[in-house]
Amino acid sequence: MKDCDPPPPEDAQDRRSVPPVICYPVETLPQPDLALYAAARRTAKKVSEVVVSPREAACFRAEAGQFFRISSIEGPQVGDLNLWNVRDLSERFYSGKTRALHGTHLSIGDRMWSSFPTLRPMATITHDTLGWYGIDPYGGSVHDVIGTRCDPYTGNLLSESQYHHCCHSNLIRALAHECGLTAEEAERHVHDVLNVFMCTGFTRETGQYFMKASPVRPGDYIEFFAEIDLLGALSACPGGDCSSEHSSDAAACFPLLVEVFSTDPATLADWHSPGVNGYDRSHGLG
Description:
By secondary structure, the chain is of the alpha+beta class. The protein has one domain (46-264). 16% of the residues lie in helices and 28% in strands. It is built from 6 helices and 13 strands. The strands form 2 sheets. Strands 2, 4, 5, 8, 9, 10 and 12 form a 7-stranded antiparallel β-sheet that branches. Strands 1-13-3-11-7-6 form a 6-stranded antiparallel β-sheet. The chain is globular.
């Protein structure tokens, strides 16, 4: 407690001991048919791949009903992932609502949800070779939706730096190149990420966001089922495995591989891409 803080009230312990309530019970959420996805995956053939260079980002496209896989191929490396509706960049991954629905870190069966007003599944995680990690003694886990992305503005705020290969800037360059946008136009669409392979949590003492060395090793991967037609961008973070720092060239960095797989359409004959959210959008105005 800080010197300027008022003393606790007499019933402070009673107030602290009130049990928590889950904000968004998910029992009524539409559940992914993982068995169907697994059957479709057995028919899959690779149709494209892109290698994301260290301290850079690259875009990829995955159609609804395809799978995309992000793999470590040379050394421990984390990546920052953005997703958009390929035909409407205003529909993009909403990390905050995904966190509220699924928790601070994602794994198999969890979904990446889109922004308002569509709020629908964009992708579902179907495989995760780091699913064994769980929550470590420090409260850390992998694939977080609690961090944002390393960016030049925070770097400038904290150290007056002008670093251009943080994930925010990497994603801007990749999107600008892919879509023929200016940096200013692309920056409007870059958003909070899924921190793929990153190991993070909050300290118990101060509640601060922490990172630690990622457990990812070459051969590890996370794979997704594309629920809608997607444009993705992945940045190979300048922090490497994020064991010490980011937003500089100090860390050892390695490439990441993104592969896209198509499936036999017959295996998904009864599957349909999710529609947009059913709320009427009147907001009480009639």
